[in-house]
Amino acid sequence: MALRVVLAVLLTLALLAVSLPAVDDARSTRAATALDDASERVRATGERLAATSDPALGETAARHSLRLDLPTRGWGARSGRLRLRDGRVAWRVGDGQWHVDRLPSLVVPDGPLVVVGRARLVLSHRHRAGRSVVVVRRGFKSENATTAARDLARPLPRRDRRGLSLRHLVRR
After folding, report:
1. How far apart are the first and last CA of the chain?
2. What is the model's pLDDT at position 151?
3. What is the pairing mode between strands 118-128 and 131-138?
4. Distance between CA atoms of residues 123 and 5, nearest Å
5. Which residues contact 45 (CB under 8 A, 6 or more apart)?
6. Going by C-beta distance under 8 Å and a sequence separation of 6 or more, which residues neighbour residue 40?
């Protein structure tokens, strides 16, 4: 009886030892595929934005919001990171080598942008230094940035509200 238990444990350990490298390879492949897809989405979105819109100087530039969901460390995948710099998008799985895609029109004004896990990026088509570029920023707004909808939703100043009254429409 004890011999059967020992043989069952040894067989289980042997099967586990044989299958773990394949599981680890599958995790790396899944993460690499997800990161390559995210890099391709950034590249394609930037190129499409540059091809279909005119560059602008200020906050009125054409924009596109891009939501990325990169793999994080877990049983199903290894962690990865995406790094955006002026002119290139790079990604790597774990501590592996960097895979670099060149995008000459890409500009990251706040320095290198590293994305890990979930993130929202905003790409805008701008005119800078005499050339058309695609600017990439994180998806949150700076404090001084406003949108047209927010400007329109502001209440009128107190002095301008006096003449706007609905009292004459109400029957007494």
Report:
1. 98
2. 37
3. antiparallel
4. 61
5. 64, 66, 123
6. 101
pLDDT tens digits along 27-81: 888 888 989 999 999 999 988 988 888 888 777 788 888 898 888 877 667 788 8
What's the pLDDT score for residue 160? 46
Cβ 88 vs Cβ 101: under 8 Å: yes
DSSP 8-state class, residue 162: T
For residues 84 and 112, the answer to whether their CB atoms sit within 8 Å is yes
b (16+ CB within 10 A) / e for 65-81: ebebebbeeeeebbbbb
- Taking the C-alpha atoms of residue 124 and residue 57, their distance in angstroms, rounded to an integer, is 11
Is the CB of residue 94 less than 8 Å from the CB of residue 35? Answer: no
Query: Domain residue spans in the chain?
Result: 35-142
d(CA 164, CA 80): 57
- Encoded tokens for 99: 């895979």
Contact residues for 105 (Cβ-Cβ < 8 A; gap 6+): 46, 50, 131, 132, 133, 134
Residue in the structure block whose two tokens are 């029957």:
171
**Residue found under tokens 């890099």:** 39
- Other CB atoms within 10 Å distance of the CB of residue 132: 13
Which structure tokens are listed for 148?
């047209």
